[in-house]
Amino acid sequence: MTKAVNLLINKKLESKPEKKNLFNKISIIKLIAELGSVSVNDIVKNLYLSLPTVNSLIAELLEDDFIRQFDKGESIGGRKPNLYKLCDGLFQVLSIELQRFSITLSIMDNNQNIIAETIELDNELSRNGENLAAITQIVDQYLIDKSVDTENLTGIIIGMPGLINAEEGTNETFLHDDNQSITNYFERIYKKPVFILNDVKGAAYAELKFGLAKNTKNSLIILMDWGIGLGIVSNGEVYLGRDGYSGEVGHMPFIDNGELCYCGKRGCLETVASGIALVNNAKQEIQKGELTKLNELQPDELQHLTPTHIIEAANKGDQFAINQISKLGTNLGKAFASLIQLLNPELIVLGGKIAKANELITIPIQQAINSYTMAILKEHCDIKVSSLNLDSNTVGLTNYFITKYLSVELLHKSKI
To answer: Measured in Å, how far apart are the chain's first and last C-alpha atoms?
Structure first.
């Protein structure tokens, strides 16, 4: 099906009416990708096209198997309108999700169908761009193991932490190379369009489109994993900032003369309120002889302790693990109080592996917010744990790729 899309987008056109027809078809496909499903009236309203034109375009897209009718919408008087969505497999996107100590690979289509099974492997994220070659080796093996026909791939989306300029395709924090952007490197290797996005902004897109932040205007999405990231929804859109660097809450100064952070500054929030801080503090206390179920781990597991180990112990009633998570939550809550007073959100969505601690982390967060936030601001801000599953980041990244890809194609077609 992806081959058909490529033929549509790359079709050579002679006349202006043909070019306009193609532009409108891509616009409809993009609108459906953004909204999930549309009626004819939705298309007329959003794209400012006439009803006869839309009906003609819909008929052509149905005939070519780009879209399908799947349901009837709600009626506001008269017959229920037909609803259209994209056909399965129209776009197939390889997601490369890089975290501080792991890499997750998957291929998902435009309707959230998994095309190739998701895998997660250990991989320490490097600052050096020379390590891009090691990542492509992992990707190549994945494509071989899953028998992926790369001809069907629409492109690649890379999600990762750091100071990412999505337009330039660069990351100033990790895998940085002065001679080439990350996107250019992957495009050269795989001959596919490649986009890159900060991991928490991918989570914010997922929450805004499919999760608890849907239909909100001003919300915060906090991703709590090895690091701490912030996605800002402002006026119903994910806010990026001038260069795409918004939301670096983990590197706000939090403690005077604190521990040295990997960013080079001392006392950042991440040094006391992140997965790394949680693990480091737990290891230090265990080495001092603290009694905990974590001592039952094998030496290799204890050496490679993760936030998940601590959360699992806490959920089994281990008081040491509960106390460690509580301290983390208190520091996070104090930081969130500043964000609430600065941004006045209606909702904060907590995501990431540490959010799986549920009440063990949300209660100390809420207590700290109660202590450090003005009453009227906290009363109008709900705090909830994400309802999306672990594939939510992939969903957000895939949807971002498709809409971005179609936006680029529309820009190109508008200049033909």
So the answer is: 25
